[in-house]
């Protein structure tokens, strides 16, 4: 089933969710740069793709948000007692997923580095741009905040599955 229903997420929502989960997990390997200044296998093989994967994630999150808007009236319902909390949590996750690549682009633009994704020039090297650098300075703190949100999201999914023993996790599997 392609579309979402009141009981389950459809194949498009599941594909977006799990593809982005893998790509965001890959992006989190960037934290490995803080170990031995990135001089290890992870830092030398996975981290160089950080900008390209971030650009892909920006495209995917825009597409995913558009998809969510088309499915908003038929998505699985939340328990009334926690519905606002669940919506707030998902809203923060979506905001983080959108802001991370945007602030990452601001790092590159603000520093005058230029930006290339998958060997395609997104913008050329140039002068430093102070306002873009200022916005880009939010990239690292947002990465930590998004990581905390992701850990909370995974934790809640596991609590629903193993403690509450409901079908919340199964809707996305």
UniProtKB/TrEMBL annotation:
Q: What is its main location?
A: membrane
The entry's localization annotation reads: Cell membrane
- Residue ranges of the TM segments: 12-29, 49-70, 91-113, 142-163
Q: Which Pfam families match?
A: Ni_hydr_CYTB
Q: What is the recorded membrane topology of this protein?
A: Multi-pass membrane protein
**InterPro entries, sorted:** Cyt_b561_bac/Ni-Hgenase, Cytochrome_b561_oxidase, Di-haem_cyt_TM
Transcription regulation listed as a keyword: no
Instruction: Pinpoint the Cytochrome b561 bacterial/Ni-hydrogenase domain residues.
Output: 8-173
Q: Which PANTHER family match?
A: CYTOCHROME B561, CYTOCHROME B561 HOMOLOG 2
Q: What is this protein called?
A: Cytochrome b
């Amino acid at each position: 089933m392609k579309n979402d229903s009141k009981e389950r997420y459809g194949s498009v929502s599941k594909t977006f969710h799990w593809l982005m989960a893998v790509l965001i997990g890959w992006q989190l390997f960037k934290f490995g740069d803080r170990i031995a200044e990135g001089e290890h296998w992870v830092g030398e093989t996975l981290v160089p793709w950080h900008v390209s994967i971030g650009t892909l994630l920006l495209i995917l999150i825009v597409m995913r948000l558009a998809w969510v808007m088309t499915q908003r009236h038929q998505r699985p319902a939340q328990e009334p007692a926690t519905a606002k909390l669940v919506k707030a949590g998902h809203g923060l996750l979506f905001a983080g997923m959108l802001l991370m690549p945007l602030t990452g682009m601001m790092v590159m633009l603000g520093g005058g580095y230029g930006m290339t994704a998958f060997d395609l020039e997104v913008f050329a090297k140039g002068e430093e741009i102070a306002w873009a650098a200022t916005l880009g300075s939010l990239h690292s703190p947002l990465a930590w905040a998004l990581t905390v949100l992701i850990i909370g999201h995974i934790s809640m999914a596991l609590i629903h599955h193993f403690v509450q023993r409901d079908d919340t996790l199964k809707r996305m599997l």
